[in-house]
Structures are given as structure tokens and as C-alpha cells.
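Is this the right way to post C-alpha cells for a design question? Let me know if I should format differently. Anyway, here goes:
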């Protein structure tokens, strides 16, 4: 499915070759904390990073990745995996509190053939779903229109994420 997200999408595709090794938007976000707003960073733990997907399936599509640039699931430490699952839980709580989705897709695409856009750096997807969110535009045009302003969404999700992690 193609997403209609013109300004960000074209910039994103031009900036990254998706080699998985040379250009990694996740490592860029991990290593340079001075552009967190543009890079839609939500949260950093000791082992992982939480950010919004700039190329989302739905508004509020969250990515969680280990700080280590690794493409193979089996190489991630148990401690890091536990951290990613903990942050997945907080992400779900955040999205439930803020956006009240009907359902979620949670998981990883491991390898390009499985649909990974960035196979060199594994990342967990948390995608909020609403009843009927595969609406007529998607069906007819194979395109989904997302109308939320990304920076507004990032600020709201970041604030709620910090609320939830304190409640926990
Ligand atoms: Zn990376």
C-alpha cells in the first residue's frame, strides 16, 4: 500500500538508501539528540529508542528499536528484548489513552523479503487500528490519506508516554 504523505515522504526516501548499513535513520536518531523533534523521537531508555514512524500506516504508528545496529533478531540480548517489550507495553497504554484505537498490530518484519524497509536495524512496529481504517480511499486508490500534523502528534504522544511510564 502506498501512503499519501507527500512532503515528508519524498524527503525521507531521498535521504535514505535503505541499504540498512550505510544510512540508518534509527542510528541517526540514537546518535544525535539535537534533532529529536524533526526525527519524531518519543523516548530513550538505556537500551532502546522509541520514535514515530515518518512513513506511517496510521497516525500514531510507533517504532521501537535497540540502540545497537543489528538486523538479526537472535543477536539482540535478552535484556534489550525485555526492554523493547516493556516499551511496547507503554506505547500501547499511551495510544489507548490518547487515541482510543479499536485494535493494534504489533511486530517486526525481519529481512527485506518480509517487508522490512530498514532490514539492517531491527525495529518493533506498534500500529493503532480503527474499525474501518482500510477505508474507501485505500481500497480504490491503494493510497491512505493521513491528515494529522506530525509535529502535533509527536508532542501529544511524547507527553502521554511520559505520563504512562510514571504511572507504571
Ligand atoms: Zn542503525
Amino acid at each position: 500500500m502506498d501512503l499519501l504523505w507527500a512532503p515528508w515522504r519524498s524527503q525521507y526516501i531521498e535521504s535514505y538508501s535503505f541499504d540498512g548499513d550505510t544510512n540508518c535513520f534509527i542510528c541517526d536518531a540514537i546518535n544525535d539528540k539535537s534533532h529529536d523533534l524533526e526525527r519524531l523521537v518519543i523516548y530513550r531508555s538505556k537500551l532502546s529508542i522509541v520514535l514515530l514512524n515518518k512513513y506511517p500506516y496510521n497516525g500514531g504508528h510507533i517504532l521501537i528499536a535497540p540502540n545497537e545496529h543489528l538486523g538479526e533478531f537472535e543477536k539482540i540480548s535478552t535484556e534489550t528484548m525485555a526492554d523493547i517489550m516493556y516499551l511496547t507495553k507503554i506505547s500501547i497504554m499511551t495510544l489507548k489513552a490518547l487515541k482510543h484505537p479499536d485494535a493494534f498490530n504489533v511486530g517486526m518484519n525481519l529481512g527485506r523479503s518480509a517487508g522490512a524497509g530498514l532490514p539492517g536495524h531491527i525495529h518493533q512496529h506498534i500500529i493503532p487500528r480503527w474499525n474501518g481504517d482500510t477505508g474507501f480511499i485505500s481500497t480504490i486508490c491503494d493510497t491512505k490519506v493521513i491528515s494529522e500534523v506530525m509535529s502535533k502528534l509527536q508532542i501529544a504522544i511524547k507527553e502521554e508516554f511520559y505520563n504512562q511510564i510514571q504511572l507504571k
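Format looks fine. Someone answered above. Worth noting: The first helix runs from residue 6 to 15. Residues 92 and 118 are 23 Å apart (CA to CA).
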